[in-house]
Amino acid sequence: MRLSAMEYAVRFIRVMRISDIIDILIIAVAVYYFMMAIRGTRAVQLVRGILVAAVIYFLSGILHLDGLNYILSAIVQVAVFAIIVIFQPELRNILEHMGRFKILKILGIPLNDSVGDIEDVAANISLAAADMASTKTGALIVIERGTRLGEYMNSGTMLDADVSSELLKNIFVPNTPLHDGAVIIRGNKIITAGCVLPLTANTNLSSELGTRHRAALGLSEASDAIIVVVSEETGKISIALNGSLTRNLTAGSLEKALMKLLETNTEPNSRDTLKKIQFWKSK
After folding, report:
1. 40-44, long-range: CB within 8 Å, 24+ apart, which pairs?
2. Cβ atoms of residues 182 and 262 within 8 Å
3. Is the dihedral of CA 215, 217, 219, 221 positive or negative?
4. Does the structure show a pLDDT above 50 at 58?
């Protein structure tokens, strides 16, 4: 006697164990965060290519296409090592993204600084950026979040000072020892200044963007940090986040964006926040 689809489903549910349900949920969550991590990167094309190759390999076995099946099986043996070498930056970003996941945030336990500290940091950075923009003083201010930036901090000069607009402006005074590098802020402290950041490998950028913007984008591609840039040529204020650059911000829109991004429950990879920055910029 043939069973209907509903009867098959009922029988399947009856034989399922609690461990099977947990197993499925864990796999579903892992796949979701994996797809979120690779979204907008070259790894998306890599995953598509792997899926296409897997389908062809499966069909070649069913259809007894022995020659094609043999070639694909030989390719698979070296493909894993090739993927690791070619897509090392993307794979590193995926692992870093997985490392940012905090179960305490789901439980509602605060992980970041107090609201008062966040407001002070956002206000001081915005005030300093606005003043430097008015005098066309170039600046590069990094705010650390989930991804630790120790390797970049080590390239600068240790300060460990409270965040203040006056100190930020003094650091970036032209022709001073630290003005060419980046300031890195952790919590409500300026940890280091004069830091060297990685440049983006993106070759499709506007010729208007100088070394500071390229360094800001480079770090935003490798971490979840917020990078504020003040252009020395135009005096325009920009934010680099997750490999994207939002330009022409005012002091007000910059402060609102920083407040939103530094909130306790803000997701590091929030594209909605980028859209809101654009909205605040236009107001």
Report:
1. 40/242, 40/243, 41/90, 41/93, 42/87, 42/90, 43/87, 43/90, 43/91, 43/94
2. no
3. negative
4. yes
Q: Which residue has the tokens 């979204």?
A: 39
Residue 117, helix vs strand vs coil: helix
CA atoms lying within 13 Å on the CB side of residue 189: 8
Residues shown for the chain: 283
C-alpha span between 230 and 213 (Å, rounded): 9
CA–CA dist 30, 40 (Å, integer): 18
Terminal alpha carbon distance of the chain = 68
Quote the CA–CA distance of 110 and 104 in Å, as a whole number.
8
- CA angle 149/212/182 to nearest 5° reads 40
Q: Would the pTM of this model clear 0.85, i.e. be above it?
A: no
By CB atoms closer than 10 A (0-12, 13-18, 19+), residue 48 is exposed
Say how far apart CA 90 and CA 197 lie, in whole Å.
Answer: 18
**pLDDT tens track for 141-172:** 999 988 888 889 989 999 999 999 999 999 99
